[in-house]
Amino acid sequence: MLVGYMRVSSDSDRQSTDLQRDALLAAGVDERHLFEDHASGARDDRPGLAKALAYVRPGDVLVVWKLDRLGRSLSHLITIVNTLKERQVAFRSLTEGMDTTTASGELLFHVFGALAQYERALTRERVVAGLAAAKRRGRTGGRPPAIDSEKLETILAALDGGMSKAAVCRNFGVKRTTLIETLARIEWAGPGSANPE
């Protein structure tokens, strides 16, 4: 059985599923087996897609007018199609001519999978290179420290002088968890003790 899925980005009158509906019906999808969403492709909560995925059974084919109607990204698309494959449901995209019921369609899907993996590797590479470049310039990623360096020096001096962590928190207006995490990060052991109180 052919099951169709359509999506447009909004509920506005300018955006209609008519074009997709006509194409899916012409491809043999029965009107009763059409599901649709009026939502951005970036959204996770697409009830029409959830219903379509719940509706398909082994041997069925999920049909879309265009690949970008289904997945919010290439990797998301690959995930959906792999999930369908595990459930013995085929996938067909009319515009791109991808059809996993054919050998060429299966090959094209594997090429898409390789491209998605390549895209993830490039992104990871760029992030690592960016962090390394920032580190060379003296910048580090993440949130700024909760306790600035001047205040931290005063706190360490107070702790080394015998003040308890509870008293430090009260006197310096620092949360206990923040103090503990900061001390752990700088590996402060305290005067003659691994964990002074």
From TrEMBL:
InterPro entries: Homeodomain-like_sf, Recombinase_CS, Resolv_N, Resolvase-like_N_sf, Resolvase_HTH_dom, SSR_resolvase
Superkingdom of this protein's organism: Bacteria
Pfam family, one: HTH_7
Entry keyword set: DNA integration, DNA recombination, DNA-binding
Gene3D superfamilies: Homeodomain-like (1.10.10.60), Resolvase, N-terminal catalytic domain (3.40.50.1390)
The Resolvase/invertase-type recombinase catalytic domain, residue ranges: 1-138
UniProt name for this protein: Recombinase family protein
UniProt record similarity statement: Belongs to the site-specific recombinase resolvase family.
Cross-referenced CDD domains: HTH_Hin_like (cd00569), SR_ResInv (cd03768)
